[in-house]
Amino acid sequence: MGSVSLSTTTRTALTRHRERACTDRADLHAVLDAGLVGHVGLVRDGAPVVLPTGYGRIGDTVYVHGSTGAGWLRIPDGTPVCLTVTHVDGIVYARSVFNHSMNYRSAVVHGAARLVTDPEEKLAALHAIVEQLSPGSWEHAREPARRELAATAVFGLDLAEASVKVRSGPPADDEPDVVAGGRWAGVLPVHTVFGTPETCPTLPAGTPVPGHVADRRPA
Question: What's the predicted TM-score (pTM) here?
Answer without folding.
Answer: 0.90
